[in-house]
Specification:
Blueprint lengths: L1 H35 L2 H17 L1 H4 L5 H27 L5 H15 L3 H12 L4 H8 L3 H19 L6
Helix pairs in contact: 1-2, 1-4, 2-4, 5-8, 6-7, 6-8, 7-8
């Protein structure tokens, strides 16, 4: 009898959480999108926040505002993400000037604007240090195709950024 009561309580809590999720998830994603500017990042943060709330659902569901709690969890996750990004930037570019940061931002935007195939070849060969043969193996294309894509990617970046930025 006691096992049956525990199971029915778990079922009630699961249904309770499911209703909460349906009611709150989209609003949470939208708010996080406004914070992050990236849909995928917003969705990841929202799912992580919901998972953490689910783990504590027994106590969270009795709070005055479970939605407020999930938003707080999500905001804290986003703050942690931002701190990691800042630390990563400091590791990668410890003493970058404002001008250097602007140049890196321009390069990042230009690379992001390349078609996927060109961008993949460029990143794998120029930044990750793979040979054209290795990059071809990773991409499932020939090394000749990698070199062709790499040449086109570099040409586009020279046009967009100028010879001084990308040689």
């Amino acid at each position: 009898m006691m096992v049956e009561t525990a199971r029915s309580e778990e079922a009630i809590q699961a249904a309770d959480f499911e209703e909460f999720f349906e009611r709150s998830h989209l609003r949470l994603v939208r708010a996080l999108f406004l914070l992050t500017g990236h849909r995928a990042e917003a969705e990841d943060l929202a799912m992580e926040a919901m998972a953490r709330v689910f783990e504590r659902w027994e106590s969270v569901r009795t709070m005055d505002s479970p939605e407020g709690y999930v938003f707080t969890v999500a905001l804290n996750l986003n703050r942690r993400r931002l701190r990691r990004l800042v630390k990563l930037r400091e590791i990668i570019v410890p003493s970058a000037s404002q001008e250097d940061i602007e140049v890196m931002t321009d390069v990042r935007k230009a690379v992001a604007g390349l078609p996927r195939g060109l961008r993949e070849a460029l990143v794998l060969v120029d930044w990750a240090g793979y040979s054209s043969r290795e990059a071809g193996g990773l991409l499932g294309i020939t090394d000749v195709s990698v070199r062709s894509r790499l040449s086109r990617a570099r040409a586009r970046l020279r046009v967009e950024l100028g010879d001084n930025y990308y040689e």
